[in-house]
Design a protein that fits this description.
24% strand, signal, three-stranded antiparallel β-sheet, two-stranded antiparallel ribbon, 1 helix, TPD1, 22% helix, alpha+beta, 5 strands
Length: 135
Amino acid sequence: MFLLTMATRRVFLSLFLLLQLILLVSLSSALRPAPSRQQCGGPADIVVTQQPTGRVVEGKAEYAVAVQNRCRGCAQSAVVLRCFGLSSVEPVDTAAIRPLDGDGGEDCVIAGGRTLPPPTPPAPAPPRCGSPTHG
């Protein structure tokens, strides 16, 4: 009977140590920082802005349109926007924007589907020559 009790104690001790090890591994992985990979929000990170240029072409106001990827650290490609036929009185650079379904398509591909780079951080101002280094 004593051997059974010792065996039972060993089993419980082994299980206890195993559970402690599992708990320790779980805690160490939970405390580890998350990977620093930036997650892009897809369409939410693509921003389209338009501003009037002040020019009037054939009686219509001219606008400058910019498409930007605002996701830091993530490039996005195959960007398609709703453009409803891309009406313009001046020639449009088809390398920048092109209707998908010919001239009357509702959707346009941006930059030929190539990658839109992530935004670049502003460069620090270069030091000015002749500025004093001590106050």
